[in-house]
Amino acid sequence: MEKNGLIIGYDLCKDFCRISCFRDGEAEPEDFAFSDNENPYILHNSICKKKGADQWFVGAQAYEAALMGSGAVVDKLLKIVEMNGFSTLEGKRYSAEDLLYYFIRESLSGLLKSRGTNEIASIVFTLQEPEPRVIDALNASTKRLGLPEGTVHVISHTESFLYFAISQKRELWTNLSVLYDLSANGLHYYEMETLRGMTPNVARAKCSFLEDGFSPAILSSSSGQRLADNIMTSCIDRMLSKKVVSSVYLSGNGMEKCQEWGPSFIKLLCQRRRVFYIENLFAKGAAYAAADRLNPVSAYPFRFMCKGHIDVDICLSVMRGSNRQNLCVAAGGENWFDVHTEIDFIVDEEDAVRFTVRRLNDKTDGEIIVPLDEFKKLGRRENRYHLSAKFISEEIFSVTVTDKGFGDFYPASDVVVNRSFRIGKEE
Length: 427
Prior knowledge:
This protein is an alpha+beta fold.
């Protein structure tokens, strides 16, 4: 894979995006400033097509163009994608995928120009909660940009935090690393820990939405600031008092001036803890993940576990020549939406396809069985099959077996066997 291009972390939120990037060999990702306005590192998810021209504006420029009468603004792009919606501009219908493609193209153009390159070596998009339609639209959009397969990946904010936290000095994640993220979507709490004694060692992260949180909007008044200070002080006292914490990170635009609106909260938080405010944490974490995707073997000696990842190994016993091997079709620690195996095979005196299922840190194997009774009805001595195995959600594993015939002896039929299996996650 080309390593001379940029390595990009792209944080795509409901209302805005942020970008961090670096080149291979650079130590840390650098935040990209979209403008010199008050919040230069934030680009609002809005787009505007210039009337009578194939020219697109994004962010603040989109609103400015609309105010000048040059076009109409379309915003809330992720919501349009999630609803599989569309927008009509100058009498032409644009799908959600079209709009996302133009937004990504324009948002990346300034970055590429500032770095003097058109090459992207690796890009990881991070979303609060990766949703299948958004993942598909991102993959389709980046394919239209000419990015080759394997260059683009999608991860959750939880996984981004995991990558960011474990990319810091070891002393900052020997015990728990935690994050409080305050944005227009509310207050989220993240926690990361490493579990040793497992093979391989595991780094695990989780996220929870704090119902007793608040919106940054209340910080505009002195009474709202006092309320926010009280809420955060209560959160720290309740959640961290009995935990051994190596590092605490604060992120989100609501935390930007927390030392002003939350003096009691900050005083309590900083007792025997190392505390950092990181403005662009999720994009930075995604950039670290993008860099690791370029390595033939991960530079992190851990198997990552968090929401969106499967916690089992699923293998198929096969013969290659005279050797029996276990073919891994799904590895614990992978994102469920990245798992997709396609293989052709011939059955040798077997009446079913059997997979072994082993949960991480568990020495006992389970089994998944896909019967081949439907193919027996064809009355053939030999048969060639095509197997497609993938996760269709975090806990549902799907297997499809298709008849491919056997050369000139037996033509392929329309017989297909599909089975889905629930593989619950370990609590």
